[in-house]
C-alpha cells in the first residue's frame, strides 16, 4: 500500500502523522524533507526526489515542484492521499489550494483524498463548517477524519511508536488516549478498507 501525505502548508502535522501511520501500519517511510524520523526509524529515509518503491510505504511530502514527474507519479500510484490541515482560515485556504493541485493538476481521484483536520480549540472550524466550505469552493465532497490536539503527539518520537501502539499499550493508556484512539482508529480502518 502506498500512502502520500501532503499539504502545501507547513507545520500542519504531516511528518507526525506520516511517521505514526508508518509505525502503526508497519510500512516504510520516505520523505523529501529532513526531520528527526530517519534517525529513529530504521524503515525511514530521505530522498530529494523520492522513488516509488514496491513495498508498503508512507510518503511524507514537504514542498516540491510539479516539474518532478516522479513525485506526481507517486501521488497517482498512491492508494490514499492524506491531507492534514489546521482547521482555521489560513489552514483552509492552503488546503483548498492543495486540493486544487491534487484534483486539477495531478488528476487525483477525490475519493482517494482523506482530509485530516486537527481541531485545535473552540475557535477551530467544525468538521461540518470545513466540509461545507470545501464543497462550496470545489464542488466536491471529501471524507474528513478529524483528530483533536493530543499530548500523545509529543510521545511519538521519544517512544518510537505510532499513535495506536502507544494508545493501546496498557489499559491505562487506552483510557487516557481513548478520544484520539477512536478518531485515529477510524482513519486506520478506512486506510485498511474496514471503514
Ligand atoms: N493533533 C495534534 N496534537 C498535538 N500536536 C500535534 C498534532 N498534530 C501535529 N502536532 C504537532 O505539531 C507540530 C508540527 O507537526 P509536523 O512537524 O508533523 O508538521 P509538518 O506539516 O510536517 O511541518 P513541516 O511543514 O515543517 O514539515 C509537531 O510538534 C507535532 O507533534
Ligand atoms: Mg514535516
Spatial shape: globular
- What is the CA-CA span between the terminal residues? 16 Å
Average predicted local confidence, pLDDT = 95
**Continuous helix count:** 9
Which characteristics define this entry?
195 residues, alpha/beta, eight-stranded parallel sheet, 43% helix, binds adenosine-5'-triphosphate, binds magnesium ion
Report on the architecture of this protein.
The chain contains 9 helices and 8 strands. The chain has a single domain (2-191), classed as Rossmann fold, CATH 3.40.50.300. The chain starts with a strand and ends with a helix. Helix content is 43%, strand content 18%. Strand 2, helix 2 and strand 3 (44-46) form a beta-alpha-beta unit. It has helices at residues 14-25, 37-40, 69-77, 89-105, 127-138, 156-159, 163-167, 171-176, 178-191; strands at residues 2-6, 28-31, 44-46, 57-61, 80-86, 113-119, 143-144, 147-148. Strands 1, 2, 3, 4, 5, 6, 7 and 8 form an 8-stranded parallel beta sheet that branches. It is an alpha/beta fold and 195 residues long. Adenosine-5'-triphosphate binds at residues 10-16, 33, 62, 118, 147, 149-150, 153.
Amino acid at each position: 500500500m502506498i500512502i502520500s501525505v501532503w499539504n502545501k502548508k507547513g507545520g500542519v502535522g504531516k511528518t507526525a502523522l506520516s511517521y505514526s501511520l508508518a509505525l502503526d501500519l508497519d510500512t516504510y517511510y520516505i520523505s523529501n524533507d529532513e526531520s528527526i524520523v530517519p534517525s529513529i526509524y530504521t524503515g525511514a529515509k530521505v530522498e530529494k526526489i523520492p522513488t516509488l518503491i514496491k513495498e508498503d510505504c508512507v510518503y511524507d511530502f514537504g514542498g516540491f515542484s510539479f516539474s518532478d514527474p516522479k513525485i506526481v507519479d507517486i501521488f497517482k500510484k498512491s492508494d490514499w492521499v492524506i491531507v492534514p490541515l489546521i482547521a482555521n482560515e489560513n489552514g483552509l485556504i492552503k488546503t483548498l489550494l492543495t486540493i486544487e493541485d491534487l484534483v486539477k493538476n495531478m488528476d487525483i481521484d477525490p475519493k482517494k483524498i482523506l482530509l485530516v483536520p486537527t481541531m485545535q480549540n473552540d475557535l477551530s472550524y467544525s468538521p461540518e463548517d470545513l466540509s461545507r466550505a470545501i464543497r462550496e469552493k470545489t464542488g466536491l465532497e471529501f471524507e474528513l477524519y478529524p483528530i483533536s490536539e493530543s499530548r500523545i503527539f509529543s510521545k511519538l518520537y521519544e517512544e518510537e511508536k505510532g499513535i495506536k501502539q502507544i494508545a493501546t499499550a496498557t489499559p491505562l493508556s487506552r483510557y487516557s488516549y481513548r478520544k484520539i484512539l477512536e478518531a485515529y482508529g477510524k482513519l486506520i480502518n478506512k486506510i485498511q478498507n474496514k471503514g
